Amino acid sequence: MKLLILEAGHCLSLALAREANRRSDTELTIEPGLSPDLALLEELRPDALVIPPLSRPITAEPAAVVAHAEAVERCMVACRELAIPLVWCVSDQLYEDGLDLPIDEHVIPEPRDDSLRRLIRTGDRIRAEYPRHLIVRLGPLFALDGSQAWLSELLDTLMDGGELRAESDVILCPTSADAVAMALIGMLQQQYCGAEAWGSYHLAGTEPVSAYTFVSMVRTQLATRLEGLGERVALGDAKALNHHHDHPLRRVLNCRRVLEVFGVHQKPWRLEVGRMLDIWCLARDDDKQAGEEMTR
Questions:
Q1: The overall pTM is greater than 0.90
Q2: What is the pLDDT of residue 294?
Q3: In a domain, 16, yes or no
Q4: Is 273 within the bounds of a domain?
Q5: CB atoms closer than 10 angstroms to residue 3
Q6: Model confidence over 245-263: pLDDT tens digits?
Q7: Torsion (CA) 137, 140, 143, 148 in degrees, nearest 10
Q8: Average pLDDT of 54-68?
Q9: Which residues form the RmlD-like substrate binding domain (predicted)?
Q10: Which among 73, 55, 63 has a CA at the least distance from the CA of 115?
Q11: What is the pLDDT of residues 224-235, one digit of tens each?
């Protein structure tokens, strides 16, 4: 199976590359931008074109949101012309006001923000004009590298002694970029083999948690690991923010359909964070040893 992935530096693109390197049944081509040339698509004829999410559309500049939406629509037109399946990953932030119950796939977001509504129109157009699509809604992505990699940003701030501010009244499902990459390739392999299960799916980590609790847990786990390595680092603090005093905003995705259709189980975010922190600490230790050897 051949995949064309856009936005080479995105944390999800890097995770897809790592996952493909571990497999013998998947070949990736990764483009730096969001607008692949039609001639390239014709030459490659990938089995799917994958577009990573604009991870934080609520805080992104409106011009950036519009540019992303327009690029996705151009990709859809090109994919339709060449009969190439389109995979568009989108942020859970499109559910701007959340819901009290876990959000099912058939629930189309209805945000109030003009920029977010522009993304909704893009989704509506894809559903209306090109059936061979997967719209994959994701929780907040975290990873150790790449753009929009929440965890690496948290670690850098903590190690620099900076303050981390996060909402204590926004409930969400942090989502491992590595877990999404594994799931996406598995889903596309089934599509490649004739599943024809197109439509919208939710992929997110298990265990809904507030943004503040997630950030605090990362800080605690990092401190524990550094102490175990004999390092004393004055980590930055986490500060709770309260924006929804009357009722917490719950942005929790129901991922039942992806399990029923593709057999994809969601990975617990705590385990994924722990695994990534172990990798981070090993890399830090290797860098430290290499530095000591160079000074000898």
A1: yes
A2: 62
A3: yes
A4: no
A5: 23
A6: 778 999 999 999 999 999 9
A7: 90
A8: 94
A9: 63-278
A10: 63
A11: 999 998 888 999
Q: How far apart are CA 212 and CA 138, in angstroms?
A: 19
Helix, strand, or coil (residue 52): coil
Could you report how far apart the first and last alpha carbons of the chain are, in Å? 49
Q: What is the CATH number of the domain that holds 16?
A: 3.40.50.720
Side-chain-side CA neighbours of residue 183 (13 Å): 28
Q: For the chain, what is the domain count? A: 1
Domain encompassing residue 135: 2-142+175-206+252-267
- Which of 216, 214, 208, 215 lies closest to 251, judged by CA? 208
In a domain, 194, yes or no: yes
Residues 29-45: b if buried by 16+ CB within 10 A, e if exposed? ebbeebebeeeebeebe
Q: Is residue 121 part of a domain?
A: yes
Say yes or no to pLDDT of 291 above 70.
no
Q: Which residues contact 14 (CB under 8 A, 6 or more apart)?
A: 143, 145, 146, 177
> Residue 77 — very low, low, confident or very high, per pLDDT cuts 50/70/90?
very high
Residue where the block lists tokens 């497999």: 23
- Residue 162 near residue 97 (C-beta atoms within 8 A): no
